[in-house]
Amino acid sequence: MARIDAFFKLLHEQKGSDLHLVSGQQPVLRIRGDLERVKFNVLDDNELRAMLYEITPEEKIKVFEETGDLDFAYEIPGLARYRANYFMQKNGIGAVFREIPDEILTVEQLNLPGVISRLAMLPRGLVLVTGPTGSGKSTTLAAIMNEVNAKRKDHIITIEDPIEFVHVSKSCVINHREVGTHTRSFASALRAALREDPDIILVGEMRDLETIRLAIEAANTGHLVFSTLHTTSAVKTVDRVIEVFPQGEQAQIRSTLSDSLRAVLSQALFKRIDVKGRIAVLEILIATHAVRAMIRESKSHQILSSMQTGKKYGMQTLDDGIAIHLQAGRISPEEAYMKCVDKERFKSYLKEPPADFTEV
Predict the structure, then answer these.
(1) What are the φ/ψ torsions at residue 27 (nearest 5 degrees)?
(2) What is the pLDDT of residues 17-35, one digit of tens each?
(3) What is the CA radius of gyration of the chain?
(4) Which residue, 98, 111, 145, 281, is most buried by CB atoms nearer than 10 A?
C-alpha cells in the first residue's frame, strides 16, 4: 500500500471530491464544494515528491520533470479511481486528485431531467456537456454512456486524458483510449476512430481547433459524438465553438454545426440542503429546426428566447432549473440567488436581499 493511499481513504470516507497536496501547506480536502484542511504536518517538498512518485509510472515522472505538468489516472481497487494533476509552484511540487467513483450513477440517481435519457438513444449528431471545472460534466456524461451501454448494441470509443469512468461492456462493445498512453492526441485518436467502426464516440474535452473540427465532422458523417467544453451557458457554447475557427471559415462552420448539433447541456453544481451532497442544475438546449436556423443565420442571441418557450422539447434555462430544485427544497435560496442569471426573479426568496455591487 502506497503512503498516499491513506489520504485517498480519508477523502473517500469524508465523501469529498478532491484532494490537494501542495509543498509548504497541510493537505486539503474539498467536501461538498468547500476546502477543509486536514490535521497533518505541513508537507515538505522532498517528502511530498517521494510520496507522489511512489504511485507515478516511471515514464510519467520523466514527462513531469521535463515539463512541470502531468495528468494521469491512479486506481485503488475496491475504492475508486483518481484523476491526478501534478504541477510545480513556488514552494515545490503540488498535486490535485479528483475522485472518480467505481459506481456509475444513473440519470435517475442524479436527479437529471428525463430528456437526458433520450439523448442516449439519438442515432447521430453532436451532444455537448459544458460548465466550469468541477461542475460534474464527467459524471453526467458517464450516466448518459451508462444508458447507452445498457440499451443499445453499438461500438463505443472513448478518448480521454486521462481515462475517468471505466464502463464494463454490457450490450455495447466499449474501448477506452487514453491520450499520451494509447494515442498521441485527441485529434489523432479521432482520425483513427473513424476507421474503427464506431457508432458512438466520446471525446473527453474539445480543447483545440483541430479536435473541434474533427468532432463536428464525425457527427456529420453519421456518428453520435459526446464531448465537453468549459463554457457557462448553452448560448456561449455555440458562440465558443464558432469563434474558435478563423473568421473566413465561420460562415461554413455555422452551417456544419447547425446540421450536426443535437443538444447542449450546461450545468452548475449546488449544495443540497435536504441531504448531504451536491446536485447538478442543468440548462438544456435542444437543437430544434428553429434553433438550427438561428445558428446558421448568426442569430445565436435569439436562442435563449427559444429555450424559454421550448419546454415541450425538454428545453430549460438555468434559472428554470434552479427554480425547480429551490421549490423542491433541495437547494438554498442564497445559493440560488448567487448562481442564477436573473437576480430579480429570486430576490423574493431571500430574507435580506443583498446589494449586488456588480449591478450598481
Answers:
(1) -60, 150
(2) 999 999 999 999 999 999 9
(3) 21
(4) 281
Three-state secondary-structure class, residue 327: helix
Provide the whole-model pTM. Answer: 0.91
Residue 152 buriedness (CB in 10 A; 0-12 / 13-18 / 19+) = middle
| Rounded CA separation 177/199 (Å) | 15
Residue 119's φ and ψ, nearest 5 degrees, are -65, -30
Cα 314 from Cα 307, distance rounded (Å): 9
CATH class of 5-101: alpha beta
CB 20 within 8 A of CB 96: yes
DSSP string covering 198-231, please?
-SEEEES---SHHHHHHHHHHHHTT-EEEEEE--
| pLDDT (mean) for 319-336 | 96
Q: Which CATH architecture has domain 115-345?
A: 3-Layer(aba) Sandwich (3.40)
The alpha carbon of 71 is separated from its chain's Cα centroid by a whole number of angstroms, namely 16
The residue behind cell 458517464 is 142
Which residues of the chain are in CATH 3.30.450.90 domains? 5-101
What percentage of the chain reaches a pLDDT higher than 70? 98
- Whether the pLDDT of residue 360 is over 50: the answer is no
